């Protein structure tokens, strides 16, 4: 597997690697540590990780290409001395050209794992460069043996662009990991002095500007019957910290270890997902927050865009906001406080068990790999 982050670990990559190891595959991740903070070599749950140190920062814009090329060159030389490789699994487009070259040298199958619409994620680069990347992605994608992606909308889009074979391995979750005892749940509720009649909203993610956090916080400020648990880092972290310092029904956790997210989700009633629907990538959005909420059987609160809007509407497992205005969010919170929303929760739980279960995604991944390596 090729990865352009340091594998901290990356949740999707981690789950896929573990699934393959359980089936008997030998999995090694070759990844780029631009912060030079993680070990060069490491084994996590049987996954062999080798990191390449190329100092850089995130969000460099078009100048990042130079550093990316250096990562490709170092990674290529490292693979030349490795034993036989059966499959090269490139995560996101920034490792796909490298994966293509390695697969041709090693006579291996090439898998492209598109976590999102890569071209629509690039917001601050020249339009000419975007066009070049778009054409390059089409070129390499047509020469893959398999394209894996996160949802049906993105899958159909990539097939139209030339993917010869594509499947969905969603960011789905294991519902069993979201089951906790009452004692474990009450320990969290008591720690934050959450009243039994308060509805609990959880949003633990990257706290970027696009996450609609100011509106959510202002709506909760006006709703004493609601308790908001926030976690994560990003541009809005100071806003979250200030709100928690000044309002008794808001808590900010800072960084949350991924292993703790299921428990915080389990104690909640509502999982909020904010995003900017006008961002091009929103059309394909199938976020982890959605599937965490479904696995735990929680009400989903979001707007109508991408895969998330489609799933919430189809399964009647939450409230679709008209927009992310303060009034609209507060109206939804008032409705949930005044009405029994058990049906939303039941529908979410059913969808998480029967339609969007990691066991089903894992089965699809293994089936596709066995097709690529029939021996």
Record keyword descriptors for this entry.
globular, six-stranded parallel sheet, Rossmann fold, 375 residues, single chain, 2 domains, alpha/beta, four-stranded mixed sheet, 14 strands
Distance between the termini: 20 Å
* Main sheet characteristics: 6 strands, parallel
Level-1 CATH class name of the largest domain: Alpha Beta
Structural class: alpha/beta
Helix tally equals 15
Instruction: Tell me the CATH architecture of the largest domain.
Output: 3-Layer(aba) Sandwich
Can you describe this structure?
The longest helix is centred in the N-terminal third of the chain and has 17 residues, at 64-80. The protein folds into two domains: 2-172 and 358-372, 3-Layer(aba) Sandwich (Rossmann fold); 175-354, Glycogen Phosphorylase B (Rossmann fold, 3-Layer(aba) Sandwich). The strands form three sheets. The protein has a six-stranded parallel β-sheet, sandwiched between helices. Strands 1-2-4-3 form a four-stranded mixed β-sheet. The protein has 375 residues and is an alpha/beta fold. It is globular. It has helices spanning 11-22, 64-80, 96-106, 118-121, 127-141, 152-160, 182-191, 213-221, 237-246, 261-267, 288-296, 306-315, 326-338, 342-354, 358-372, and strands at 2-3, 28-33, 41-44, 47-53, 87-91, 109-114, 146-149, 166-168, 199-204, 226-231, 250-252, 270-272, 299-303, 318-321.
